[in-house]
Structures are given as structure tokens and as C-alpha cells.
């Protein structure tokens, strides 16, 4: 009876600690944002910077209110590019990681190409993508997918090939086929590594989307930032940058929460 009571108490304490941790994360984020805004305002005041160099936070906040419709419309476009780029990049990364694991000739040919592809800056091929795919959403989606393709592929492949050999030997003894090993052992064991790749992808996917908008676009936050900079509307440029940062942070936080729930055995 004492052991049961101790177990219940331990679980309750763990649940309370987890709840406290979940509540502390947003509070820390708010404190960090407040400190950064305070330092921003202090820098403007101390160095007497003009608004076309560094606008004060209140001017940026005012621009967020007065131009919310334009900012919201362009945020929707950039958000679509990021999400579609993530779906495409993750799908391709998982597909090629499986090909390298299951077919050794593919690994010998594809892995060196993957490594060599990182020697070419993704930003350098953005004009080529604009030429091939036009100035629509397609080129930005491909840009976002390309920039996350390598980390997702490598993380997934490392997770798949580093499956504990004891599990594989036991499943072979029990008569499991290669596909059964992949479904029930290799893939679940690789999910924590794949989750790390997904977290990296969520952070850097907006870079690809915005870089594509900088090269050529008619809408999106990157396009809006370029237009604001050309017109010396620096407060609007900072407003777009703030929304882009908020979008990236929110996307990362949502993804992290989903991965923790879907993969409870990850470290």
C-alpha cells in the first residue's frame, strides 16, 4: 500500500512540475520580449537615432495597427509558402532517406550529391527558380523546401540507420520481414531524430520563403519589406519583420508541442 501511495504521489508531483514548466515558458518569452523592447527604446533615446535608421518601438506598434490589413494579407501569403514548403521538403527528405536506407546503390550515388549540393548557396539558385517557376507561390515553396531538404534527409537517415541492433536481431529471430522491421522498429526508433530535423526545418523554412520573395514577388512579407525599404518606410519594414519573427516562433512552438505529444518516448 505504501508503494502505491508513493507511486501516486510521484506521478502527481511530476504532473505538477510539468504544468509549472509549461506555464513558465510563455512567461520567460514575455520577459525576454519586454527586455528586448526596453533595450531597443533605450538605444534610440541614448544615441538619438533618427526614425529612418531605427524607429522606436511605439512607431512600429502604431504601424502594426494602422496597416494591419496589408500586413495580415501578406502574412497569409508568406504563411502559405512556409507551410507548403515544409510539407514538400519533409516529404522529399523522408522519401530519399528511406531510399538510401533500403537500396544501397542509391545511397552510394545520392549521399555524395546531397553533400555537394550544400556547396551551392540556395539563394544563388533563387533567380533560376524564378525563371523556371515564375513569380508566383510555386518558386517560394520550392525555395523553402530546398533549404530544409538536407537537414531533414540527414536527420531521418541517421535515425533510421542507427536503430539499436538488439531490436533488429530480435525481430529477425522472430521472423520479421524487412518491411516489418522498417514499420515497427526502424521508423519509430528514428522518430526522435526526425523530430530534431523537423524542428530545424521549421526555423529555417521562413528564410527560403522570404528569400524567394526578395528575388521576385508581388506579395508576401519579404516583398512588403523591400517595398517599405525603397520608400523609406522603415517602421513598416520593422513591423513586417516583427510579424515574420512572431510567425516563425509560433510555428516552432506549435510544432514542438505536437512532436512532444506524438513522440512521447523522445528524450
From TrEMBL:
Main location: membrane
Domain of life: Bacteria
Pfam families from the UniProt entry: BPD_transp_1
UniProt-annotated location(s): Cell membrane
GO BP term, example: transmembrane transport
Keywords: Cell membrane, Membrane, Transmembrane, Transmembrane helix, Transport
Location of the ABC transmembrane type-1 domain: 71-255
Cellular compartments per GO CC: plasma membrane
Membrane topology: Multi-pass membrane protein
Listed transmembrane segments: 27-49, 82-103, 110-135, 141-160, 189-217, 237-254
PANTHER family on file: ABC TRANSPORTER PERMEASE PROTEIN HI_0355-RELATED, ALKANE SULFONATE ABC TRANSPORTER-RELATED, MEMBRANE SUBUNIT
Family of the protein in this entry: Belongs to the binding-protein-dependent transport system permease family.
Protein name, per record: ABC transporter permease
Origin species: Photobacterium kishitanii
